[in-house]
Amino acid sequence: xxxxxxxxxxxxxxxxxxxxxxxxxxxxxxxxxxxxxxxxxxxxxxxxxxxxxxxxxxxxxxxxxxxxxxxxxxxxxxxxxxxxxxxxxxxxxxxxxxxxxxxxxxxxxxxxxxxxxxxxxxxxxxxxxxxxxxxxxxxxxxxxxxxxxxxxxxxxxxxxxxxxxxxxxxxxxxxxxxxxxxxxxxxxxxxxxxxxxxxxxxxxxxxxxxxxxxxxxxxxxxxxxxxxxxxxxxxxxxxxxxxxxxxxxxxxxxxxxxxxxxxxxxxxxxxxxxxxxxxxxxxxxxxxxxxxxxxxxxxxxxxxxxxxxxxxxxxxxxxxxxxxxxxxxxxxxxxxxxxxxxxxxxxxxxxxxxxxxxxxxxxxxxxxxxxxxxxxxxxxxxxxxxxxxxxxxxxxxxxxxxxxxxxxxxxxxxxxxxxxxxxxxxxxxxxxxxxxxxxxxxxxxxxxxxxxxxxxxxxxxxxxxxxxxxxxxxxxxxxxxxxxxxxxx
Length: 489
Hints:
- This protein is mainly alpha-helical.
- The chain has 17 helices and two strands.
- It has helices at about 5-25, 30-35, 45-70, 75-100, 110-115, 120-155, 165-215, 215-225, 240-245, 255-265, 270-305, 315-320, 325-360, 370-390, 395-420, 425-445, 460-480, and strands spanning about 450-455, 455.
- It has a two-stranded antiparallel ribbon.
- A hairpin with a 2-residue loop joins strand 1 and strand 2 (about 455).
- It is globular and about 70 Å long.
């Protein structure tokens, strides 16, 4: 790797660690500061933090890779996500911000659910915490896989201290993220997400434009149609099940703890401004990701290049088309996407282990300082689990993200929506929704029905999981209407 690239990356790492130290000075004295930044995030920081932690390396690796292989038809995933994000900001964000304060100033999603349904408080907190830790270990592993692929493809060409280039990348990515997350807590994660979100969107706009202007717009289109006449078709080879599975990604937004926790942290009165900023950022970023995948495929075909892993098209373009210093900036954007999501997921996992396990069962009267310390230890433990999962170099970023996204979307999505909007929902219904949603998703994956279903194409597991969870909540709540339930605020 050339020196300018290394300099650019070193500056990026120094900036991230510096933000972590700044946040450590500002907001880690108590649990509310460490876990929610004191509920005082500016709208722009909250919006880009939600977006950056949402999109992750998937935005620069998984989605462009899918478009590189299959063409414009994969854009329906992005469309489904954008529609889901719009509904999430309108329906969930303002209600969750208000109700988490009104129901006992809850600092975590499980804590909010327990306060909302006090008759099933322990069951909800424990079940929620288990689901969060299990699926976030998988989700964080997806980010570490992206870090491993990046280091293997670009930074390291020989074993490091006995580790393969891929595994060295996984470990280095995890260590840097742990450094600023454990030190600075939620504020550090949110501020680094804001910076990383800015870097990501600039990179996603610049890269496809450079490719298109360099190769020519007309020539790019011709090259893609030469690959497949339907490569630029929105519906080429798309089945009804395939379409539903793609757009169903949008259902996952309502149940992603690392995203909706940002709604809880926005300063009072800032939800509307954050929504507008966040949706504009997301729209531009998704367009850029589509451009990277499509323009990248045309560039490879036109120049006779070889790409073994479609999910590394962003890395290939960064290394071959730009000045080394700019390459460093672009690779920093990829690291930003990866780190922003991992850090958010680790912090949410640690908050559940601290507030919904340690303080609930082991030491109810733990001091604020002790709780912060336990949170830091929990962050490291979840990171270790993610490293183990990511140790397989054959792991696919998109596949791991898809599984974790579906798990959260099905388990928490209907639960969050109905708990915020339906006053007749009961605690028993909430527990049923959690268990059934997560259970159906895991069973669907285990049976392979997300790859092949009844001899036909697979159905994305979030569809049956979300529907089953919603139905379970409705039926169980109807059956237990005599139970006392706290009214929706």
